[in-house]
């Protein structure tokens, strides 16, 4: 803003009037102050332009135009003044340095001449140097080329040295594969992959080689698996031989231990009871054969690895372990072995027919588990104890079921005994390999019961044959030797018979010593099964006594009962059977002593069972006695059926009927047989007398009852007095027989009382004493106390009908017609008595 410029008033404002003097002074001061501020602001802007980058000048210059109007003109004036000031300073500086500049130019011109001279010298020197170094350059290039070749050769040698081991290892791998050394081949592959191939992996042959190795692994895996399958097939075929060897060794070991124990206890043990020169050890046939087997087995002891090559399993296990697939191999092996176990446990359908079938079955099972035990201990984790135990428990359940089924088909005790021995050896063998066999011994107790059943069946046939071959007569003894032979087989002692001279007879028949010997043979046979069952002497004693009790109470008792019931066994045979059972009953205590000597268990032991032979033979004797009574009655009935009375006969023949005399003679001869019953002591004498008395009384009662029934038979309509007289003669013969004491021991007329009913009835009709009968009826002292009114009425009715048709009572009608009326009266009275009895009852 120029000094002295006028200020225009703002638009819209009224024009200013001339200020007074004071106002003019104030306006002049304000203008001066604004001029100073403007100058200071322009100075600042110039300093910023001089010191600021050209790109930032725009905002500075814009501030010039933003100020008061015409400020840019004053700024331009200020800027021109500043430019002129700078020009003066530049001029002063140029004037100050001009001489120096001139001197420098002069020196530079001088240096240019020297530089051109030096340039010529350098060019000449370079030319001469180039000429001189051309040959050196050629030689240097040759040296460089040789050095490159040398370096390439060294590199090649170095690379070849890295490749050669790879190729050598690969060649070694091929050789191992060809020689079937697969485990070593896998190790070689592992070295190739981890060590050698990474060193030269940039080469193509190494890449091809690396791609080939997985295929080779798969081939090795397939080949090893094929070898494993061949091995599994091989052990399936060799299981029989492996099991046979293992069981034979177990049997030899058991025999050796048993022999050592017997030899150690030989000096202090109680002598074994012998029968026919045999001890229990010899009786079992274990000494000679087992000792010979043991001597043969001492030469060479074969094991599972001697019979089977287990290398395929080891090789396959190592291969799969190296390949990281061990679990797959273990699962496959266990699965296949389980399948084979099921095949091994499947028996043949006819296994129960021969012992060889059982032996082959056991050999295969033992061979299977011997192999598994070897695998368990020879490998780590291929099979575990838990797996083998699971497999064994499954097999054991199947074995028990199979043996229980097949043994039930066996009826031969010898075969059952051989089966038991096989099971014991089978159990001992597997127990030696750590398997639990308690359930097998429990099974043996079931088979023992079956064995006893087969023995009982066998001995039932033996007893039946003995009874069929017996003649049921006392044993004749001609010489002392014969007598000793009998008592050596049967414990018979009778002082009276021993005093008798030869020849003499022993009271029992031939079947008695034979039965006694067969019972002892049964005990021996039962003892065979109890051996090697790891049981105490007390348990064996208990088993022997229980089985012997079964033989006596069931088998022998049944045979005796059947024998007694046979129709061809007569009264004589029945009497002899009673005698035989008496002596067998006495021999029971000797059988108990026999068992005690075998087992060395005192009979006073708390748990010792007693033989039930006493009750068995008593029951048989009672059955024989009952059969005697029955057969006597049957024989009496046969004679009664021969009776042929002429019931309308006018008068009797004066003698007894023939059939009755034959019957009485039969009874007399029969009761004489009872004198042979044993009576060597008071008890037996009382027993024999009681049997004879009971038989005689039973026969007399049955005869009396049969005669009474004959008179009262409803089919018999008419009876004459002559027939009554003839019948009376027969009854008199019966009374005479009863009074003749056919069997001693009856007191008074006890036996005659069997015919008292018949006697009183016949006396009533023979004497015709109806008045006495009717008068004394119901009185204890009645003469005809045993005559029943209904019986008398029935017989009187038969006689009444006869009088009407045949005029038997005509003499009464002629002489005394009152007697006919008496008959009618008696009939009426008898009927009234009968009716009164029925109403009272």
TrEMBL record:
Residues 78-247 form the Exocyst complex component EXOC6/Sec15 N-terminal domain. Keywords: Exocytosis, Transport. The keyword Ribonucleoprotein does not apply. The keyword Membrane does not apply. One of its GO terms (biological process) is intracellular protein transport. Residues 440-798 form the Exocyst complex subunit EXOC6/Sec15 C-terminal domain. One of its GO terms (cellular component) is exocyst. Gene3D superfamilies: Dsl1p vesicle tethering complex, Tip20p subunit, domain D (1.20.58.670), Exocyst complex subunit Sec15 C-terminal domain, N-terminal subdomain (1.10.357.30). Belongs to the SEC15 family. Component of the exocyst complex involved in the docking of exocytic vesicles with fusion sites on the plasma membrane. This is Exocyst complex component. It comes from Astyanax mexicanus.
């Amino acid at each position: 803003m120029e000094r002295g410029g006028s200020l225009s008033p703002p638009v819209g404002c009224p024009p200013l009037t001339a200020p007074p003097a004071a106002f003019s002074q104030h306006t002049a001061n304000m203008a001066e102050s604004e001029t100073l501020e403007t100058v200071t602001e322009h100075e600042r802007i110039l300093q910023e332009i001089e010191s600021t980058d050209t790109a930032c000048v725009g905002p500075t210059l814009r501030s010039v135009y933003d100020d008061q109007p015409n400020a840019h003109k004053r700024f331009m004036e200020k800027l021109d003044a500043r430019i002129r000031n700078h020009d003066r300073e530049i001029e002063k500086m140029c004037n100050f340095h001009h001489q120096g500049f001139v001197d420098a130019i002069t020196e530079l011109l001088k240096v240019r001449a020297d530089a051109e001279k030096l340039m010529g010298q350098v060019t000449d020197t370079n030319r001469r140097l180039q000429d001189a170094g051309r040959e050196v350059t050629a030689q240097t290039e040759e040296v460089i080329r040789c050095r490159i070749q040398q370096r390439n050769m060294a590199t090649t040698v170095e690379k070849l040295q890295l490749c050669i081991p790879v190729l050598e290892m690969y060649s070694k791998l091929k050789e191992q594969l060809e020689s079937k050394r697969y485990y070593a081949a896998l190790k070689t592959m592992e070295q190739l992959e981890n060590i050698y191939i990474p060193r030269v992996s940039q080469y193509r042959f190494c890449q091809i080689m690396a791609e080939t190795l997985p295929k080779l692994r798969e081939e090795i895996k397939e080949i090893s698996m094929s070898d494993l399958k061949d091995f599994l097939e091989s052990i399936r075929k060799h299981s029989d031989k492996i099991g046979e060897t293992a069981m034979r060794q177990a049997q030899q070991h058991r025999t050796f231990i048993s022999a050592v124990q017997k030899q150690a206890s030989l000096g202090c043990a109680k002598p074994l009871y012998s029968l026919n020169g045999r001890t229990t050890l010899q009786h079992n046939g274990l000494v000679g054969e087992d000792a010979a087997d043991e001597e043969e087995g001492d030469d060479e002891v074969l094991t599972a690895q001697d019979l089977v090559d287990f290398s395929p399993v080891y090789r396959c296990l190592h291969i799969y372990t190296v390949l990281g697939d061990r679990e797959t191999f273990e699962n496959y092996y266990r699965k296949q072995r389980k399948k084979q176990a099921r095949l091994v446990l499947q028996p043949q359908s006819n296994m129960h027919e021969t012992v060889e079938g059982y032996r082959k079955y056991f050999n295969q099972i033992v061979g299977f588990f011997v192999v598994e035990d070897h695998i368990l201990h020879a490998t780590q984790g291929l099979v575990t104890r838990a797996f083998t135990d699971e497999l064994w428990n499954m097999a054991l359940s199947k074995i028990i079921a199979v043996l229980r089924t097949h043994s039930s088909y066996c009826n031969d005790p010898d075969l059952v005994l051989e089966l038991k021995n096989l099971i014991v050896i089978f159990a001992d063998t597997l127990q030696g390999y750590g398997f639990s066999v308690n359930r097998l011994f429990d099974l043996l107790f079931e088979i023992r019961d079956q064995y006893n059943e087969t023995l009982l069946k066998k001995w039932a046939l033996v007893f039946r044959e003995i009874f069929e071959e017996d003649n049921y007569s006392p044993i004749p003894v001609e010489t002392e030797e014969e007598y000793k032979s009998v008592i050596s087989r049967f414990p018979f002692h009778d002082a009276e018979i021993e005093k008798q001279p030869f020849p003499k007879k022993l009271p029992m028949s031939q079947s008695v010593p034979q039965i006694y010997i067969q019972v002892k043979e049964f005990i021996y046979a039962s003892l065979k099964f109890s051996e090697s069952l790891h049981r105490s002497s007390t348990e064996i004693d208990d088993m022997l006594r229980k089985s012997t009790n079964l033989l006596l109470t069931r088998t022998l008792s049944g045979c005796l009962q059947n024998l007694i019931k046979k129709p061809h066994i007569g009264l004589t045979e029945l009497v002899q059977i009673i005698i035989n059972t008496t002596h067998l009953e006495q021999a029971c205590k000797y059988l108990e002593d026999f068992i005690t000597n075998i087992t060395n268990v005192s009979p006073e032991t708390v748990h010792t069972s007693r033989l039930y032979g006493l009750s068995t033979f008593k029951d048989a004797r009672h059955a024989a006695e009952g059969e005697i009574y029955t057969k006597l009655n049957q024989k009496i009935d046969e004679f009664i059926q021969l009776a042929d009375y002429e019931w309308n006969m006018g008068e009797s023949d004066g003698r007894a009927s023939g059939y009755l005399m034959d019957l009485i003679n039969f009874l007399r001869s029969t009761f004489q047989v009872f004198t042979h019953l044993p009576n060597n002591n008071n008890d037996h004498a009382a027993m024999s007398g009681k049997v004879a008395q009971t038989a005689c009384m039973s026969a007399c009662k049955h005869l009396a009852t049969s005669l009474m029934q004959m008179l009262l038979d409803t089919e018999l309509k008419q009876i004459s007095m002559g027939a009554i007289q003839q019948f009376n003669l027969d009854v008199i013969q019966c009374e005479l027989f009863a009074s003749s004491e056919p069997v001693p021991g009856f007191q008074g007329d006890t036996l005659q009382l069997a015919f008292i009913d018949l006697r009183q009835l016949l006396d009533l009709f023979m004497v015709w004493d109806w008045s006495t009968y009717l008068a004394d009826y119901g009185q204890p002292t009645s003469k005809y106390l045993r005559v029943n009114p209904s019986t008398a009425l029935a017989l009187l009715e038969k006689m009444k009908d006869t009088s009407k048709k045949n005029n038997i009572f005509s003499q009464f009608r002629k002489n005394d017609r009152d007697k006919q009326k008496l008959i009618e009266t008696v009939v009426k009275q008898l009927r009234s008595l009968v009716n009164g009895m029925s109403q009272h009852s």
